[in-house]
# Entry
Amino acid sequence: MTTGRRPRVTMVQAWVPRYRQGFHAGLRATLEARGVDFTLVYGNPVGEAATKDAVLSIPWGHLRDHRVLRIGSKALTWQPCLDLVRGSDLVIGDQAAARLINYVLLARHMIGRERFALWGHGANFQATRASRAGELVKRWVSRRVHWFFAYNELSAQVVRNLGFPDERITRVQNTIDTADLLAAKRQITDEQQEALRGDLGIDGEHVVVYVGGMYAEKRLDFLLEACMAARSALSGLHVVLIGTGPDAGVVEQAARAHDWIHYVGPRFEADKVRHLLLGKLLLMPGLVGLAVIDAFALELPLVTVADSEHSPEIAYLETGVNGVMLPAGTGPSDYGAEIVRLLTDDVARAQLVNGCRQAAGDYTMSAMVERFADGIQRALAI
# Structure
């Protein structure tokens, strides 16, 4: 690191999801207080990411849009930002094989220019969507960077298995800021919830919810079959499904056929919280990612299955403590039986609710920011 001036760190992101806005602002403030200058470079989302909720303007950041190179069905992106990177003491990029800027940054690192670090999962945890060639390239690059910011211990284990030194891995305990979620929860009244129950036609106490994208990895057919099995054993069961996506038609069809299945489409902010708080359990038999943080914050125990293609945040779920991970191979009927067990066993469910409350205090945005800043300072010192 160059002496005689404040160290400079540049983070190059393909795009910034709205849930990351608070993280970047917090990291910048924390590093500034520690005497480190922080520059954020970001682009507008392209491809599948373009449908997601992105921050399109960060006043203190630098927007550098992508140039897209298509090779057959593959899309590679170039983000023109070398002028902002030059002279940095550390550059942090996304761990993504399609990001051409990464190869230039790695080359500069290998010839003694700016140190290059990666932030990512370690591997694509959604194996059915992963490109074999892309994963091979990703592993090759990941072994050669200066530092790795892993989502959590699960990601760190993947990176370690590549042969990367453990002492150069920072586990950031990836999370989201739940302040708005909790503020909305505090403002919701019993009267509002009763009105919502009336609007939806919910007349029983046994309510479960699903929230998220509606696509193959979420296993919505499995979920609906499990709920059918549960309803046959628990006649007062109601299911509320929140979200949209290519498989939303499956849910809409089920809701038209059964008055106890309620599809409400996508919901946001306080409206989403109101719908979630109707439930006693959060059902996600398929892919689980940052939704586990929402479950903790809202004290809504999550139920999933081990052999789904989960993101690294699944490591935060502890079966019998703050949620339930059913064994690999669990079918819809057994998942349905677990729904019934938890809805009818107040003691077991209360234990999970208490575990959610404790976990919510462990996985906070402020703690993630501190871990990331600590990792940056360690990376600058070596």
